[in-house]
Amino acid sequence: MHRYLKVVCVVFFSCFLVQHFQAFAGAETKGDVAAKVGDKIITFSELDDSAKSALIPLQAEIYQARKQSLDQMVAEILFELEAKSLNTTAAEYKKGLLNKDAIAVSEDDILKYYQDNSYYFQNKPLEGMKAPIRERIILDRLKEKERQVITSLKVKYPVETYLNEPEFKIDTAGAPSRGPEGAKITLIEFSDFQCPYCGRFKSTVDRIVSEYPNDIRHVFRHNPLPMHSHAMKAHHAAVCAHRLGKFWEYRNVLFDHQNALGPSELRSYAESVGMNLAEYDACMADASIDGKLEDDVEYARSVGADGTPTSFLNGRMLSGARPYEEVKAIVDEALHS
Fold first, then answer.
1. Distance CA 189, CA 181 (A)
2. What residues are paired with 185 via a beta bridge?
């Protein structure tokens, strides 16, 4: 036990698997047949393909729920083993390990957190936010300390897990990208220039990319939502910017001016980032781009990206404007896996 700690997911998911196979007992006797209508057959493969856009987010949620529980179970066993080696209880060991009073937070720490996360505070005065910021910093540091301890305990008491993360293959051909082609991490972002949550998430993505310049390839996928009246033209203009070699500069300007995305503003922004206006005008008149964007929207739906932002980090689905701390933790985990 002290030499090898094996966490076998077969036991962990036994009840789930029993229910699963009971639910599909008919499929076992009928092979791949989900239904028959007259002499027409609907297979489970056809059914899954038809429901793919709904199934992908569910698969991601099921995996995250399993992983969260499994990580917690593994950590508790590791703490018990280490506590036993120190002749104490797991509760006492964790109490000493995760002592909030031992975490020092300076005024400079609070100011930096406030500045780095200014978007989330919506211009609220720093003075009134100091207490919650201090608490957030303490919790983040305790979480990081716990992660480091668990990592070291996994060396002392080796852990084997057999829970495989679902990987969703996302097409990136022709999409704007930045970062090395051979990066260990690929972050694919489905976004909408008029979506306020996408504007919020932009700062998180930019910060992550700047902090891991050699480790992350960031790919942008267009997903203008129909409820945003200026989104389609803004994305059309961004496609033109990509053709003219100015996508990332133009992307930044569009997110900085989400409430001013009319035709004249889009053209002005094109000039401001150095696009040739004659080439820009000709590109904006290209109706085939709108058809391509409609295909992009349909593709986004097919992979479960119904809302924006929706991202895939090494095939792992992340829905919504996830906070910087959460994305960073996922990146660190992927880099150390």
1. 16
2. 216
Q: Report d(CA 304, CA 58) in Å as an integer.
A: 9
| Of 228, 121, 222, residue with least CA distance to 175 | 222
Which runs of E-coded beta strand occur in 71-229? 159-160, 177-178, 185-191, 216-222
Range 177-329 classified under CATH 3.40.30.10: yes
CA distance 331 to 317: 13
Residues of the chain with CATH 3.40.30.10: 177-329
Instruction: For the chain, give the number of residues.
Output: 337
**CA 304 – CA 56 distance, rounded (Å):** 6
Residue 51 — pLDDT band, cuts 50, 70, 90?
confident
pLDDT digits over 82-139, tens only? 999 999 999 999 998 888 888 999 999 999 988 877 767 878 899 999 999 999 999 9
